[in-house]
TrEMBL record, chain A:
It comes from the Bacteria. This is Cytochrome oxidase maturation protein, cbb3-type. Keywords: Membrane, Transmembrane, Transmembrane helix. It comes from Cyclobacterium lianum. InterPro entries: Cyt_oxidase_maturation_cbb3. Coiled coil: none annotated. The chain crosses the membrane at residues 6-23. The keyword Transmembrane helix applies.
TrEMBL record, chain B:
PANTHER family: ATP7, ISOFORM B, CATION-TRANSPORTING P-TYPE ATPASE-RELATED. This is Cu+-exporting ATPase. Its main location: membrane. Residues 97-163 form the HMA domain. It is found in: Cell membrane. The chain crosses the membrane at residues 181-200, 220-238, 250-273, 279-296, 434-452, 458-481, 756-775, 781-803. It is a multi-pass membrane protein. One of its GO terms (biological process) is copper ion homeostasis. It comes from the Bacteria. InterPro entries: ATPase-cat-bd (IPR021993), ATPase_P-typ_cyto_dom_N (IPR023299), ATPase_P-typ_P_site (IPR018303), ATPase_P-typ_TM_dom_sf (IPR023298), ATPase_P-typ_transduc_dom_A_sf (IPR008250), ATPase_P-type_domA (IPR059000), HAD-like_sf (IPR036412), HAD_sf (IPR023214). CDD domains: HMA. It comes from Cyclobacterium lianum.
Length: 60, 817
């Protein structure tokens, strides 16, 4: 049963890690703008290759 | 890309490839595409040169019309000024500079795409990032490769000119959004969750199976986890309670702080001295729910600004004349006696005397009335007016902050911090009595039990303090108000904060501004009286009014509809007067009565604006344009006048008094010819009579009145545009809902009271057990969250139900998204 000691320690560390990650994300402004990233992700990133400029039409 | 272009061609014969507006006059052909003006063409050519034409593929005609864009080259010169740059930028080191621009033109995915690809237009730009909702772009650039001035000019060239206003140069920069509450909430939630885990075995006697070592471990871990809760998450409550006590009042946070401290200290006492489990998990839960309520109440409308003063609208720079040479200087450097030049569509930044023969000044920004006023040489033009027509030169009379209008901000009402909170919130008023009652009961229990058993007395005493810690009570207000605020927001009524709701509920007097609030110049009805106009004449008129930017011309233009404009031989605009055109060697005049050579037939019983049409000296007819009253105003005022005292304040002459009296009844007290300071004074007089005043206004001239009244509501037709400082912003289209809003705010009070009753019931039950010393940690751990959650559920359901019955159940999202 002593393994519970270890498990509790691990679980606390894990949960604390998530808390820390949340703080970090907050500080980086991840939650400041919740609208633009949803649009941004749909943009295609063109490769540097000039031949590749033709792209399919996007219809709204 | 090509497909969309051809499709569009089918739909609309000749619409601009860039902005999508019909090309009525000269169509510019470039690259097999149509453009309505050279501005749009330039934007396209810049983009195509840089291989950025995906811009046009992401949305149809994403651009903004460039027709009215100023093309002066030197207008960004002030951005070379070191002082100005330092005020504008966010961050700078040896290599790069970061700056955030407000770009109101951002409206679609193409905008985001183009603005985030700025680096492809100039190698000096490192990257840029758009915040779509706030319409802001943060640009990082290397200051050695591109100057700020060049950067702004570049953005202007592709049609995204940042708006830089005087307030951007203000001394204090806005602090970043306060995230402390979120951190506290996260900490409290984290600790609460884990403490629950460690407490559960104890409650269900599992720990005893595991052995003494585990029990103690769980308790010590709980103590460890409670430390951040007690010393970090709860600090706001100590501070607020302390401040209240220092001011010899009791607010809701006093009993809360009392409960928190008792919970913590007594739990430590139990754990370390008595070897019992303590109430620490309840402490975590308490803080988590309390902070959750606080956070819910703190809903803010990021895109709206509730504290703008005139500086938010004034330009940063003006053109100053120095020995006939133009120079662009920051407005802060303009001194009395300087000569400044103001071009078409530019704002007059300081009270000054006109040096040219005449000017047409549009004071819509100040009064809401958008018909320009003609000004003669030597007359003073007040700051805030906008020139319509050719450039004028002005002699500055007063510094920008001392003007007739801007002087309002030097009024006493603005210098002190808002002291509107005379009406204490409902929760705070009862908390004094509540705290007293709790203390009496607690000490009563202590006295009673200590006659038999002192330790039992202490237990009962602490139990009362713990169980009555007004968790549910403290949550009913934030959740009710927070939810009401969200419902208002969905209906186009945006509040500065939730305290405004309680103030609205107490209002008994309503004061309305006229122009721009009850009437909407944009809705003005137009009608034509006179001889029937031939197709040809209509075409001539169309060509004439298209030439002019005067609002009356625009209205005539709208009335004309899609008429093909004729080719005029000559057309000339006399600012503030009218238009003269020559067509097939006929002289055609369109304009005000004072402008005509002939005496026109007078039109009786019409009080709005008249535009006369005269051909070769013969008066053909007249356009009658009245100050359009917003839809539903009569009904709205009818609803309101039974419940409130109504006042109307207008800066206009009283020639429309009879009309309004007929329209809205005599119950409405009307005051005309009110200057901004008069409006402010009138509100103060009403307040001295003991009235709770709600002011509804729109222009800068209402700013003082909006500020001093208990509740100031700014009405605006474009939610992201102009609104003076206020407590709330109301979408002009929803003004008719005002009675509903007022009624809803009042019933919000009832919901709060009902939820108070609910939580008092919980407290009464809790106290019943507490005075007998029967409160166990399990009971506490169950009762606390249960009461909180049930209060939240009750208030949310009740407010939603009330909103539904009042017809405020719009599911539509906010208009700016």
């Amino acid at each position: 049963m002593e393994v519970i000691f270890v498990l509790i320690g691990v679980s606390l560390l894990l949960a604390g890690g998530f808390l820390w990650l949340f703080f970090k994300a907050m500080k980086d402004g991840q939650f400041d703008d919740q609208h633009t990233p949803a649009i941004r992700i749909l943009f295609e990133h063109k490769s540097k290759n000039k031949n590749n400029t033709k792209k399919p039409n996007k219809s709204e | 890309m090509e497909n969309t272009a051809t499709e569009k061609k089918k739909q609309q014969q000749e619409s601009c490839y860039h902005c999508g507006e019909p090309c009525d006059r000269d169509v510019l052909h470039f690259d097999k595409k149509n453009f309505c003006c050279s501005g749009c063409k330039t934007v396209y050519s810049v983009l195509s040169e840089n291989d950025l034409c995906d811009y046009y593929a992401l949305a149809d005609s994403p651009g903004q019309s460039q027709k009215s864009q100023s093309s002066r080259n030197n207008r960004f010169d002030y951005l070379s000024d070191r002082e100005v740059i330092d005020k504008l930028i966010d961050y700078q080191d040896k290599e790069e500079t970061h700056i955030t621009f407000f770009v109101p033109m951002i409206h679609c995915a193409s905008c985001i795409w183009l603005l985030e690809n700025l680096y492809r237009l100039h190698p000096g730009i490192i990257s840029s990032r758009v915040d779509f909702v706030k319409k802001k772009v943060q640009v990082k650039y290397r200051q050695e490769r591109i100057e700020l001035r060049a950067l702004v000019a570049l953005m202007a060239r592709i049609g995204y000119e940042p708006r830089i206003n005087l307030s951007d140069l203000g001394a204090e920069r806005k602090p970043k959004a306060d995230r402390r509450l979120i951190y506290k909430l996260a900490v409290a939630g984290f600790c609460f969750g884990n403490m629950m885990f460690f407490s559960l075995p104890e409650y269900f006697s599992e720990a005893r199976l595991l052995g003494k070592g585990f029990t103690n471990l769980f308790r010590y871990l709980n103590v460890l986890l409670s430390l951040p809760v007690f010393f970090f998450a709860a600090t706001d409550y100590y501070r607020s309670a302390w401040m209240a006590l220092k001011n010899r009042t009791v607010n809701m946070d006093v009993p809360i702080a009392m409960g928190i401290v008792t919970l913590f200290v007594y739990s430590l006492f139990e754990i370390f001295l008595l070897g019992q489990e303590g109430y620490l998990d309840s402490l975590g839960g308490l803080l988590f729910f309390l902070l959750l309520g606080k956070w819910y109440q703190q809903k803010t409308f990021d895109t709206l600004s509730f504290d703008r003063d005139y500086t938010a609208y004034f330009p940063v720079a003006v053109t100053r004349m120095k020995k006939d040479q133009e120079e662009v200087v920051p407005l802060t450097r303009v001194r009395v006696g300087d000569i400044i030049r103001v071009r078409n569509e530019e704002l007059v930044p300081a009270d000054s005397v006109l040096l040219n023969e005449e000017a047409a000044i549009d004071y819509s920004f100040v009064t809401g009335e958008e018909v320009p006023v003609g000004i003669r040489k030597g007359t003073v033009i007040y700051a805030g007016g906008r020139q319509k027509g050719p450039a004028i030169e002005l002699l500055v009379q007063k510094s920008p902050s001392q003007g007739y209008l801007t002087d309002l901000w030097n009024h006493a009402a603005f210098s002190k911090e808002q002291q509107k909170d005379s009406l204490a919130s409902l929760a705070n008023r009862i908390s004094g009595k509540f705290t007293l009652t709790v203390l009496v009961i607690a000490f009563g229990a202590l006295l009673y039990w200590s006659m038999y058993d002192l330790s039992m007395g202490i237990r009962a005493f602490t139990a009362v303090l713990i169980i009555t810690c007004p968790c549910a009570l403290a949550m009913s207000t934030p959740f009710t108000l927070g939810n009401i605020m969200r419902i208002f927001g969905r209906n186009g009524f945006y509040l500065k904060n939730s305290q405004v709701i309680e103030k609205i509920a107490a209002v008994d007097t309503l004061v309305f501004d006229k122009t721009g609030t009850l009437t909407s110049p944009a809705l003005a009805r137009i009608r034509y009286e006179g001889e029937k106009l031939s197709e040809e004449t209509l075409g001539v008129l169309k060509a004439m009014v298209s030439y002019s930017v005067h609002p009356l011309s625009n209205r005539v233009n709208r009335w004309l509809g899609p008429v093909i404009p004729a080719r005029l031989e000559q057309v000339q605009e006399i600012p503030g007067k009218g238009l003269i055109a020559r067509y097939k060697s006929q002289r055609i005049v369109l304009g005000a009565a004072s402008f005509l050579e002939t005496q026109p037939k007078t039109i009786k019983n019409f009080r709005g604006n008249k535009v006369y049409l005269v051909v070769e000296g013969v008066h053909l007819g007249t356009f009658l344009i009245d100050s359009g009253i917003r839809k539903g105003m009569g009904k709205m005022l009818g609803d309101l006048k039974t419940r409130f005292a109504l006042h109307l304040l207008s800066g206009d002459q009283d020639h429309e008094r009879q009309f309004f009296e007929k329209e809205w009844g005599r119950e409405m007290h009307m005051h005309f010819r009110q200057s901004p300071a008069d409006k402010l004074a009138r509100i103060q007089r009403l307040q001295q009579e003991g009235r709770q005043v709600l002011m509804v206004g729109d222009g800068l001239n209402d700013a003082g009145a909006l500020r001093v009244s208990q509740v100031g509501i700014a009405v605006t037709d474009d939610i992201s545009h102009f609104s003076p400082a206020s407590d709330a912003i109301l979408d002009g289209k929803r003004l008719g809902y005002l009675p509903k809003f007022l009624g809803f705010a009042r019933s919000g009070r009832k919901v709060i009271k009902a939820s108070f009753a609910l939580s008092f019931t919980y407290n009464a039950v809790g106290i019943f057990f507490a005075v007998q010393g029967l409160v166990s940690p399990v009971l506490c751990a169950i009762l606390m969250p249960l009461s909180s959650i049930s209060v939240v559920v009750f208030t949310t359901m009740a407010t939603n139900l009330l909103a539904y019955t009042r017809g405020l159940n719009h599911k539509s999202a906010a208009t700016w998204k």
